[in-house]
Specification:
CATH architecture: Alpha-Beta Barrel
CATH topology: TIM Barrel
Strand order of the largest sheet: 1-2-3-4-5-6-7-8
Number of domains: 1
GO biological process, one term: ketone catabolic process
CATH class: Alpha Beta
Subcellular location: Cytoplasm
Number of helices: 11
Helix content: 40-55%
Pathway: Carbohydrate degradation; pentose phosphate pathway; D-glyceraldehyde 3-phosphate and beta-D-fructose 6-phosphate from D-ribose 5-phosphate and D-xylulose 5-phosphate (non-oxidative stage): step 2/3
Largest sheet: 8 strands, parallel, barrel
Distance between the termini: 37 Å
Bound molecules: erythose-4-phosphate
Structural class: alpha/beta
Protein name: Probable transaldolase
GO molecular function: aldehyde-lyase activity; transaldolase activity
CATH superfamily: Aldolase class I
Radius of gyration: 19 Å
Number of strands: 8
């Protein structure tokens, strides 16, 4: 399973990239707003930090304008993945941009049939939003499972990018189902490494080691 980090904070991205934990980055207009800098600058900086796909989202709502914006974003760096919303216009833009050889991430997916359409439109990634479905008492993980089954049935190459991931358990379950990628906020990604028994065990080992009076040299 690949991990993308879901943020536009370049410092967080650099830290996780240096630790070898991430394979790419996803941003959205809300994350760009938090970064409080011009979008093209932020995306360019992120693309310098990571070689993996960096999703940059269009903000137009009609297909022609999405295509125009998408091409501008794609010029920033070779690893920009153009993110379009799962609307009819978004799918038209996806088909066009994908046919021209661009990576496309179709976002805001909330149903398996939407995901089927995105795959048919040539999406590189489909982003089903787990957390936002859970927020309204629907089952985000069931959606990941449905999409996995449908994509396997028809051998689509579109990668399932589990998004709106909020918990360690979301990552675990998405991995068990076989999502290709999870995009995870920095804090949740860092939390994946933690276990109280690891901390306790390490503390004991170090204390015992000190008692031996030895050093490794
Ligand atoms: C992914 O591409 C989305 O930007 C993100 O995962 C949305 O997460 P949220 O529902 O926590 O805002």
């Amino acid at each position: 399973m690949k991990f993308f980090v879901d943020t536009a904070d370049v410092n967080d991205i650099r830290e996780l990239q240096d630790a070898g934990l991430i394979d790419g980055v996803t941003t959205n207009p809300s994350l760009i707003m938090k970064a409080n800098r011009p979008m093209k600058e932020v995306i360019a900086d992120i693309c310098e930090v990571t070689e993996g796909p960096v999703s940059a989202e269009v903000t137009a709502t009609d297909a022609d304008e999405m295509i125009r914006e998408g091409k501008i974003l794609a010029e920033i760096a070779d690893n920009v993945c153009i993110k379009v919303p799962l609307t009819l216009d978004g799918l038209k833009a996806c088909r066009h941009l994908s046919d021209e050889g661009h990576m496309v991430n179709v976002t805001l997916c909330f149903s398996a049939t939407q995901a089927l359409l995105a795959a048919k439109a040539g999406a590189t990634f489909i982003s089903p939003f787990i957390g936002r479905l859970d927020d309204i008492n629907l089952d985000g993980m069931a959606l990941i499972a449905d999409i996995r089954r449908i994509y396997d049935n028809y051998e689509f190459d579109t990668e399932i990018l589990a998004a709106s991931v909020r918990t360690i358990n979301h990552v675990r379950e998405a991995a068990l189902i076989g999502a290709d990628v999870a995009t995870v906020p920095p804090a949740t990604l860092k939390a994946l490494v933690k276990h109280p028994l690891t901390d306790k065990g390490l503390e004991q080992f170090l204390a015992d080691w000190q008692k031996t009076g030895q050093t490794i040299s």
